């Protein structure tokens, strides 16, 4: 799920990174959404 702001280790976290990795772990990529979505929507 897309997360609301939260305190983590005393700091405000306002986002989370979404990444994908190859099966063998040799490559990873940062995924970016096509448009903004409201907080709380499910990531599938």
Automatic annotation (TrEMBL):
Alphabetical keyword list: RNA-binding, tRNA-binding
Transmembrane regions: none
Domain TRNA-binding: 1-44
One annotated GO molecular function: tRNA binding
InterPro entries: NA-bd_OB-fold, tRNA-bd_dom
Name under which the protein is recorded: tRNA-binding protein
Source species of the chain: Escherichia coli
């Amino acid at each position: 799920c897309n997360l609301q702001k939260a305190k983590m280790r005393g700091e405000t976290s306002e986002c989370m990174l979404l990444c994908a990795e190859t099966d063998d772990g040799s490559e990873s990529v940062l995924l970016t959404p096509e448009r903004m979505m409201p907080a709380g929507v499910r990531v599938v």
